[in-house]
Amino acid sequence: MKKNTLLLLTLLCLANAFAQQLVNPNNHTIRQNLAEAEMKAAYRTSNFVANLNTGSYDVGHVTLRLTATPTVQYIAGVITTEFTAKESMSTITFDLNNNLTVSSVTQNGAGLGFIQDSNNQLIITLQQTMATGDSSTVVVTYEGAPLASGFDSFVTSTHSGSPILWTLSEPYGAKDWWPCKQDLVDKIDGVDVYITAPQQYVSVSNGVEQDAVINNDGTKTTHFTHNYAIPAYLVAIAISNYTVFTETAGTAPNTFPVVNYLYPEMYELTHTQVMATPAIIDFYESTFETYPFSAEKYGHAQCGFGGGMEHTTVSFMGGFNRDLIAHELAHQWFGDKITCGSWKDIWLNEGFATYLSGLVVEHQDGADSFTDWKLENLYNITSQPGGAVYLTDADTLSVNRIFSSRLSYDKGAMVLHMLRIKMGDANFFQGVKNYLADSNLAYAYAKTPDFKAHMETASGLDLTEFFNDWVYNQGFPTYNVIVTPAATGHVTVTLHQTQSDASVTFFESPLPIRFYSSDGTFFDTILDNTVNHQQIDVALPFNNLDSVDFNPFYDIIAFNEVTLGTATFNADKTITLYPNPAKDVLNLQLPQGVTVESATFFNTLGQKVLQTGNQTSFNVSGLATGMHFITLITNEGTQQLKFIKG
Questions:
Q1: Mean pLDDT computed over 329-338
Q2: Which of 157, 242, 467, 507 lies most in the core, judged by the most C-beta atoms within 10 Å?
Q3: One biological-process term from Gene Ontology (predicted)?
């Protein structure tokens, strides 16, 4: 079988299989479900602007005393917030949706004046003006029906007829159910959460369950303590008729419980699925560092939304696929311990979590499965020509863009993998360890320059150009790789590159390439491509070169075409599409003696969108923007090609 033909056939077959998954709404990929769940949680705040009025103080410890039942869309609470003035202040402001009504506010036992304004703010007049550095405590009593808006910030529902309540606050939904300061600047120092609910239900929250006290009125109050810094959006509760399944994970002396709250009707299946968790924890700990909340717990609470949400120490889960378990667990390091410092930097959360789920594939399933995982990512990334990992100010106004599975998840993950290829495993993983251990970032916030600085220190490389190309700017390269014989045992590799987006004039990248001999042996090397149209001499360990695979393990984000520049090589490898991407007209360049009989164009859903005869120029102006596949029938056989409609 000809190597490049096999490569392109594989691309087409996997693309069609993946497209069929996309067509079936019950068979979405895990990362799409993740993105959709997090996107759904964010829709309610698509026009949100961080509240500058909450910037005058630092939040300390917060105690939430909550009363709720999973059969009623209602919550009552008493929230005690410790805070320290960052400047002279006579009022304190919390974010709180106007659907909830405050009945009283006290400071040092004395009642305070307050208003709830039209901007969903609770503005409290303090007893006296506080000076910078002064600390105090306010207690807010409130109740009401959180918005049942369909955006999952506070949900009451059922599973198999049994009631359930859960919260999902990313990025700014916490104010829908409790008065808080929600931003990406100031983490809460720690929380105590008391949940009073009908005694037949099990309550869930962050941290360690301290006790569950049966009250005289048929209710039960469950107390959780979480003594790590936490942003408001990661504070969560759930209430249902859970069956609890506990395991132990971690490396001694830092072992900890993994507490799983599961639907009883699904327990036989789900308790087996969650048993994958300790092995993944062990892998992450051996690769990076000890689980960052090992003094407390990890766990899962089953809920009724697609995907998952990485609430600190307890991920809320719509299912228990291994990829989802690995993704949400990874967030405990990348998202919970270190949280992205702005929504522009969301890839530091989602790109890392996606890549770590890929590392689990590599570790548990082997190199071939990891190659398939990377191919699926590349298929999604290159399905459209534009898009950066890092968001612009305008991008942050679009929830679809923040939680783009193509960019924030898949491209973010593959940029990390390319950085690993560029730096080497030892330097890459050491850089990530140093990033996690940075005392200025740990249990706080980080932005992209913070991560870049650690990777440069670990590798000794200047990564400015890499980050400019692959993080801050858009698109990806298409390579035309021409391999021609040189001296005996040598070939000249000529590298031509075009870019899918004008924001990058040239992508600098290490380029993996594999050379095959006619007897099936092969030679791998990585070419350092620093300029366009570069020619590189490669010494081969054999003289009988038969074929070439460019990017054989899908380690870089790229389209590619390989041309072998001598008649002794397989003719089908000399077929070239240009320009690629193409806006109106797409042309074929054919080797001598090869003629076209027909060409059939397919979109990424596997649907036929264009059929032509024996022409070599195609009018593609009517096709939708994005990636397409072509089945080209020639007098020499069938070739599978792909191109981007610009």
A1: 97
A2: 507
A3: peptide catabolic process
